[in-house]
Amino acid sequence: MDKYDHKTIEAKWQDFWEKEKIYQASDSSKKPKKYVLVEFPYPSGEGLHMGHLRPYTAGDTFSRYWRMKGFEVLYPIGWDAFGLPAENYAIKNKVHPRVSTAKNVENAKRQLKSWGMSFDWSREVNTTDPGYYKWTQWIFLQLFKAGLAYEATGLINWCPKDKTGLANEEVIDGKCERCGTPVEKKELRQWYLKITAYAEKLLEGLKSLKEWPEPVKLQQENWIGKNEGAELEFRIRNYELGIRVFTTRPDTLFGATYMVLAPEHPLITDIKNQISNIKEVEEYTENTKKKSDIQRTAVEKEKTGVELKGIKAINPATKEEIPVWVADYVLMGYGTGAIMAVPAHDERDFEFAKKYRLPIRTVINNPSALPNASASPLILRGDETAEEPPLNIRGDSLPHSLPRAGEGELYTGEGVLMNSGKFDGMDSEQVKAEITKFVGGQKKTQYKLRDWVFSRQRYWGEPIPLVHCEKCGIVPVPEDELPVTLPEVKDYEPTGTGESPLAAIVSWVNVKCPNCGGKAKRETNTMPQWAGSSWYWLRYTDPQNDKEMASKKLVKQWTPVDVYFGGMEHTTLHLLYSRFWNLFLYDQGYVTAQEPYTKRVPHGIVLASDGEKMSKSRGNVVNPDDVIEKFGADTLRMYEMFLGPHGDTVFWNDKGIVGVKRFLDKVWRSAVSNYPSPSGGGWSKVGRGLHALIKKITADLEAFKFNTCISAFMEFLNKNENMAQADFEVFLRLLAPFAPHTTEELWHQLGYRDSIHQQLWPEFNEKLAQDTKITFVVQVSGKLRATLEMPTGSSQAEVKAKVVSDKNVKKYLADKEVVKEIFVPDKLINFVLR
RNA sequence: GCCUGGGUGGCGGAAUUGGCAUACGCGCAUGGCUUAGGACCAUGUUCCGAAAGGAUUGAGAGUUCGAAUCUCUCCCCAGGCACCA
């Protein structure tokens, strides 16, 4: 064979690997372990796409590398198969999701095998398998028993197209994460997981994740959104209840000239009969409800609000009576749903005060503002108690006590207090605690993270294993009755009323209470798709266990995951959720690692060559199956890596692939023409360069710089087309994780019987990896004037002696005085002229 | 608006972290092989210039013997968050 026939060869070795089971991870191995994880795919009808190839190839290459390094590597795969597409397909075509899913799994599995992935198929899991979701339900029950799952009625995100509630994390830019439909707010009874109880631990844990990329950690940190401040109470005039507010700036309390309640704030209904313009207020709050989140939070939008006439709050610091407003720029979901407004020191309050002519009182001195008010006559300072009152434009003195409505200056920084009674002259940063104490408030930590809306009004998900009993209330299904299996339904169509299609299966819904035996109904909501993936890496360690989620011994043996390849888009979804579940299971003593993933390696997205997302409607999809048909898996894998750095967005471009194909053909030709018969052993004359190659490939692999590995291979082969056979064998071993089929075939052609993937990774000798000669850079005043071949380790004197005789350099040095000479060993010599 | 990345030939990208900018690949050009080729092989290919030489890493400044790399100002692109008090 003088040409590499990828179809025959790749199929042949895929069968061989499967038969020999060389990629199965052994629980009883004496070798040190490594756990390589890739995000398991959703088996869609379209099959796997280029986007899957990127992390899977990286994980595969890495697994192969670690196996050759002598580790027992666990590289498992499974199916995240609950979810909407299968269900929507069922609605349309009346095919049970179980059936279509099985078909899609079959196809995706064929694809993964054709890519030459070294997965351990004996550990395959499927989230829709009752033997799997039994344990998803079991974990839910543990959360429930720990008080971390609760039912509540509240305003939640609702996707009108998918007809289900959504978690906060599933709303991207105000739209449904799955289908892109603008999300609405709906008042619904929902199950929540109290992820907020783990806010601090999730934040704390990030600090221990030394091998996570900073941007990923930062994004999670921002999502959790910790904010330290104070909770203060403002009394309402002639009323027993007060208004509690959260603020990060208690130091500006003296500047709080009004208050704002969120439109949903319960106080508005409580004091309804004291509000003289209640009609106007209710009209406003009703209007707000109708608006979508997108409309409500649009930045360009001008702020609106209505004053609660007849209501006055009392600023606890100044004892002044201040107006109370309702405005939709205050959100019910954060803090207490009410704020103290300090227009002089908060941008939003400033804007609002300007519009509605509310008083703006400066209480923090802006150190960068000009001290003399007359120097900037347009800026009015409010009720400063300076001895000489500031001047307005006409030069008149201003009234002393009250700030002029709607006029003033905005300054949001820290500084020295003014107009703040006994706190005047103190530093704003230091005075925060004191002022909080002065008005009887408390220090308070707020998080932006919200509890996880955990129920979905859809069919194709794990049933929530709870029962509603008329007498006992909510009762968990006993653990020995798990799993609560999904019943067959006639109609998958979501009802849209906030009830799941399961509610219509009377025979399934009506049960006896496990507690009292009385009449009870099953919970009919299902879990979100994120449930199954929140613990799947644990199941891989012990996938057949029907007594436990996974045996503690095996969990301890394999976890944490050493390296987890996946997408940036899961940073505040799967990655956050699974860390939460793991932390919980850790606290309960079921898992041994506090953090599930030691290292996270994100990949860039694969876009079409037109720079757009690959999509059927655009017609720019490149199907990996077609590329494999034409070029083979090794070429596809290597080209995908060669496109660009693993973390970068890459554009698929059909044109460049021939470069990688040519390289592999060249490897093939080189082998077939140079080494027709088996022999081997020892190092040869190109050994030096080869040591350098081993060093380079090893280092770049460890740093996930796959693209430069490929260049290094190409460069080496270009220079050493006819290397000695022993060297070629080393070259093949280095290339094996990248081109598993080609290298396996050539390895066997060289006479070996074992798989190349079970060979050891080549070691390099540091001394031999160094060049014996190096090219010196000769500069005159920092400009390159010559280069010079010198033996490694040459001294300054040796280099100089050789350099000054160089014609070119002489020309530049003639009649000039050398002020300074810079010598960098094995690199450069620079003559600085006057 | 805020927070992250990033900006290098015609294109994808490389540069041992302050020391030969443009490796490797695509494309293109010329030549070879071929009945033919959009196959393969060889050579060349940052820009200006006939050459000597000069210029060049988004723009501008600075530090340094020396800057793609460090500092400052500005512009642009991608991603995340966004009326979060």
TrEMBL record:
<feature type="binding site">
    <location>
        <position position="616"/>
    </location>
    <ligand>
        <name>ATP</name>
    </ligand>
</feature>
<comment type="similarity">
    <text>Belongs to the class-I aminoacyl-tRNA synthetase family.</text>
</comment>
<feature type="domain" description="Methionyl/Leucyl tRNA synthetase">
    <location>
        <begin position="36"/>
        <end position="182"/>
    </location>
</feature>
<dbReference type="Pfam" id="PF09334">
    <property type="entry name" value="tRNA-synt_1g"/>
</dbReference>
<dbReference type="InterPro" id="IPR009008">
    <property type="entry name" value="Val/Leu/Ile-tRNA-synth_edit"/>
</dbReference>
<dbReference type="InterPro" id="IPR009080">
    <property type="entry name" value="tRNAsynth_Ia_anticodon-bd"/>
</dbReference>
<dbReference type="GO" id="GO:0005829">
    <property type="term" value="C:cytosol"/>
</dbReference>
<feature type="domain" description="Aminoacyl-tRNA synthetase class Ia">
    <location>
        <begin position="449"/>
        <end position="639"/>
    </location>
</feature>
<dbReference type="InterPro" id="IPR015413">
    <property type="entry name" value="Methionyl/Leucyl_tRNA_Synth"/>
</dbReference>
<keyword id="KW-0648">Protein biosynthesis</keyword>
<dbReference type="Pfam" id="PF08264">
    <property type="entry name" value="Anticodon_1"/>
</dbReference>
<dbReference type="GO" id="GO:0006429">
    <property type="term" value="P:leucyl-tRNA aminoacylation"/>
</dbReference>
<dbReference type="InterPro" id="IPR025709">
    <property type="entry name" value="Leu_tRNA-synth_edit"/>
</dbReference>
<keyword id="KW-0436">Ligase</keyword>
<dbReference type="InterPro" id="IPR002302">
    <property type="entry name" value="Leu-tRNA-ligase"/>
</dbReference>
<dbReference type="InterPro" id="IPR013155">
    <property type="entry name" value="M/V/L/I-tRNA-synth_anticd-bd"/>
</dbReference>
<keyword id="KW-0547">Nucleotide-binding</keyword>
<dbReference type="GO" id="GO:0002161">
    <property type="term" value="F:aminoacyl-tRNA deacylase activity"/>
</dbReference>
<dbReference type="InterPro" id="IPR002300">
    <property type="entry name" value="aa-tRNA-synth_Ia"/>
</dbReference>
<protein>
    <recommendedName>
        <fullName>Leucine--tRNA ligase</fullName>
        <ecNumber>6.1.1.4</ecNumber>
    </recommendedName>
</protein>
<dbReference type="Pfam" id="PF00133">
    <property type="entry name" value="tRNA-synt_1"/>
</dbReference>
<keyword id="KW-0067">ATP-binding</keyword>
<feature type="domain" description="Methionyl/Valyl/Leucyl/Isoleucyl-tRNA synthetase anticodon-binding">
    <location>
        <begin position="690"/>
        <end position="795"/>
    </location>
</feature>
<feature type="domain" description="Leucyl-tRNA synthetase editing">
    <location>
        <begin position="221"/>
        <end position="368"/>
    </location>
</feature>
<dbReference type="GO" id="GO:0004823">
    <property type="term" value="F:leucine-tRNA ligase activity"/>
</dbReference>
<dbReference type="InterPro" id="IPR001412">
    <property type="entry name" value="aa-tRNA-synth_I_CS"/>
</dbReference>
<dbReference type="InterPro" id="IPR014729">
    <property type="entry name" value="Rossmann-like_a/b/a_fold"/>
</dbReference>
<dbReference type="Pfam" id="PF13603">
    <property type="entry name" value="tRNA-synt_1_2"/>
</dbReference>
<keyword id="KW-0030">Aminoacyl-tRNA synthetase</keyword>
<keyword id="KW-0963">Cytoplasm</keyword>
<feature type="short sequence motif" description="'KMSKS' region">
    <location>
        <begin position="613"/>
        <end position="617"/>
    </location>
</feature>
<dbReference type="GO" id="GO:0005524">
    <property type="term" value="F:ATP binding"/>
</dbReference>
